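Dear colleagues,

As part of the handover before I leave the project, I'm documenting each prediction I ran so the next person doesn't have to rerun anything. This entry is a single chain, and its sequence is reproduced below.
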Amino acid sequence: MGESELIGALDARVKRREERRAFFGQALGAAALGGAMLAAGRAGAQTATPTPTPSPTATSTTPILGPSDYLNFALNLEYLEANFYAFATTGAAIVSTLQGGVVTAGVQGAATGGRAVNFTDPVVAQYAREIAADELAHVTFLRSSIGALTVAQPAIDLSPAGAFTTAARAAGLVGGSATFDPYSSDENFLLASFLFEDVGVTAYKSTTALLTSTLREAAQGILATEAYHAAMIRGTLYRKGIQTPSLGLIEAAQKISDARDTLDGSVTENLTLGYAPDDDQGITPTTNAAGETVSNIVPLNSNGLAYSRTSDRVLNILYLNRAAVTSGGFFPAGVNGAIKTSAAAT
């Protein structure tokens, strides 16, 4: 059985299970109601007043999420990353054949505003090309796995004057009428990549826990890849920041990290699952127990575990909004699929 068939089977199983629950719930409810009416009839047999029939309880309209919904949420993130790296390395968006979806799965949009980076550091250029190929492979794999339930690529804003500058202003990297152009230099490209990569790792860490069997194994493979990407970007920023302090890269990464923490709000700390009020870290060096300076390439909690973010808090960052909204920031019309609302961050 292929991935697409497996997802369809799992979705169908979830729906059948919920239908059975609803059926038995209604049947049990009817039986209980019938018993109550019978008892009331016996108790009130000497009176002429009938027992009123209770009003039915409203049925919840909360959608039941299946494996394809979680994978489609991940696919939206991959559309964003794949297009950003495609623009940076080739000057064009991903191919149109990887953008479409089923009619009911959201409006297809274009990724706009990007352009090629004139890399001056050959190592950064090589990293960018490697990540671009990996992200394109993720889009291709997820679309193939989800199959007939695949959502279309939503509209994506990758313009310097749009979402990137909004994010940079929120972080205090630019002010006034200045813009942040992620395509103007190796360093700006790295900072823009840092904005995406850390969020992708926390998103996949949370999402993989909601999947089962083969699907979980596949998602964990993407999680590992995204973690490698994040380490590449964080390590390169750190190296450049230490070698050339005047670039201010370590300080800039810290500001981006602080802005993400502000956007996604505060949650109750869970050291085992990786949730925390401060679930983001820059690359500012720290000291160990011996007082020695150590780098902070891998952001971990006190148990040595990477952080997690729920999908709604991931959207707080990508929509660049602390409120519960369905669009904004890098997704001006919102993401496509059942998971599309950010959290009311506290």
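The chain has two domains: 1-64, 67-318. The first strand starts at residue 111 and ends at 112.

All the best with the project,
I.
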